[in-house]
Amino acid sequence: MKITNGTIWRDTDGNVLHAHGGYIIKHGGVYYWYGENRLENFYVDCYCSEDLVNWTFRNHVLTADSRTENSRVRADLRLRNEEGGKVNIERPKVLYDRKAGRFVMWMHYENGKDYHCAAAAVATCDTPDGDFVYHGSFNPYGEMSRDCTLFEDGNRAYFLSASRDNADMHMYLLQEDLMNVERLAASFWQGEYREAPALVKKDDFYYIFSSFCTGWAPNQGKYARTDCLEKGFGLQKEIGDETTYRSQPAFILKVEGSETTSYIYVGDRWDGKDYHNSRYVWFPLEFGEDGQVRLIECGELEIDAQTGKIGY
Ligand code: GAL
């Protein structure tokens, strides 16, 4: 089964698939894709699939009218701004807390008018695709927090976000219940202005991919690797071309099949003039023995979720 990069994708009902700046998790043998939908009162949509090609719409899991509930973290619970307009919820990522049996979403929050809040926000749900309850936005340890991602490493998880007006990357260890940051575990790329972080672990190394800061316009992607997350990531190397093949990282999808494990770079091809016309690209990542990583631009990507094999 194939996907065609850069075209309008539709769900199994024939509707345009809106899951921008998103994330995919696998739960109970099913893949769940979360991402931004900025139409109507929606913030985050969820789709499910067993083959990674056909996606069924499940729910508008977070909207401007979602239920809100305080957690122990003092936070701003507003899902609309003072004018009643929508706020911005960007780059939603979800992990499963096995102990509590609950799904925890982290995202980037802004007031819908400018980018000065630079806050992180959290929501939870007992099922992957139910109505998430919103627990508000806050600045972790008072820091700015914009483009973000989550990364699970064994039984702990990290939240990464661009801080200090995007100048530096912060990586926070999350508390065990995923509901708060525990401590700043690393900060790296001081003054390098990297956005859209996306991580994956392969063999003994952690790889991180990111973009530079140019708003909706694509730019040169870079990657770096480390053998210990809390050491942070050092020197970056370029990946793809000067526009990362007209994309910005959303996340890295690891497809673990019966025969092999494949790595797919999922990128957003934003339409800066018409956000809703933004597209997705799924490109294979090839890892060399020497630590080099290659991003392969392709028009079509064949995926066999059973075996884990991909082709282009
Ligand atoms: C990008 C960022 C997106 C969105 C956009 C707004 O740099 O990665 O998530 O915030 O800017 O201009």
How much β-strand is present in the residues? over 45%
Spatially, the strands of the biggest sheet line up as: 2-3-4-5
Structural class based on helices, strands and sheet pairing: mainly beta
Percentage of residues assigned to helices: under 10%
Distance between the termini: 11 Å
Q: What is the number of helices?
A: 0
Look at the structure and give the mean pLDDT: 98
Compute the CA-based radius of gyration: 18 Å
* Sheet with most strands: 4 strands, antiparallel
Gross morphology is globular
Tell me the total number of β-strands. Answer: 23
Series of H and E elements: EEEEEEEEEEEEEEEEEEEEEEE
The hetero molecules present are: beta-D-galactopyranose
Poorly predicted runs:
none
How does this structure look, described?
Strand 15 (205-212) and strand 16 (221-226) form a beta hairpin. A four-stranded antiparallel sheet has the order 2-3-4-5, with no helix packed on it. It has a four-stranded antiparallel sheet with strand order 6-7-8-9, with no helix packed on it. Strands 10-11-12-13 form a four-stranded antiparallel sheet, with no helix packed on it. It has strands spanning 2-4, 20-27, 30-36, 42-49, 56-63, 88-97, 102-110, 119-125, 133-138, 148-153, 156-163, 168-174, 181-188, 194-202, 205-212, 221-226, 237-239, 248-256, 261-269, 279-287, 293-295, 300-304, 309-311. By secondary structure, the protein is an all-beta fold. The protein is 0% helix and 51% strand. Beta-D-galactopyranose binds next to strand 6 and strand 14.
